[in-house]
Amino acid sequence: MAKKKTTKKSTRRKPSKAKARDEVILALVAGEPFGEVAERVAAKLGLDLVEARAVVGELRQAIVVAAGTDRVGELRNAIDRLDDLYCDALNNGGESAAAKNVALGVLKERARLLGLHHVSADPDAEREGGASAAEQELESIGGHLLPLGLAKPDLPLVEHARIAADAIRRSRA
To answer: What phi and psi values does residue 95 have, to the nearest 5 degrees?
Structure first.
């Protein structure tokens, strides 16, 4: 009687789907970039990049649902809404005092959301007449934004920054 030929099984195993899913979730929660995680998934599971991006996207959405919120996304949405309100106040209200008050209130809320109002780390520097680190940083930012000529030079620096950010957002869309 002839002996049956048996094929040798490969000792290299493909990672189980559950293990791969857990690795993706850990990577996303750890803050690894979406594209890098998708490339790793494509390589490990033998998927093309489009399929891997879909898998990673589904898992990222599951994390957001489980967490109850997407803080960065919500902050971005809130800032976009405030920018819209600011533009509406200035465009529709013209030079009226009420429109300027609304615009100022919107700017204050935007600064609060971004955490721009904080106590100086070195209050003595401000009292002695020296520029604090924050003031020096603002001066440096102004040095970059003002030469771009995106807005009138007499507008507040935050308005120059808002206009520059809006231009960047539009150029990426």
So the answer is: -95, 10
Asked if 55 and 41 touch (Cβ cutoff 8 Å), the reply is yes
Record the tokens describing residue 2, joined without a space.
């002839």
Task: List all residues 6 or more positions away from 121 whose beta carbon is below 8 Å from its beta carbon.
Answer: 132, 133
Convert the pLDDT of each residue in 76-103 to its tens digit.
Answer: 888 888 888 888 888 887 778 888 888 8
The DSSP result for 64-97, as a single string, is HHHHT--HHHHHHHHHHHHHHHHHHHHHHHTT-H
Of 16, 64, 49, nearest in space to 40 by CA: 49
pTM, to two decimals: 0.34
CB 160, CB 150: distance < 8 Å: yes
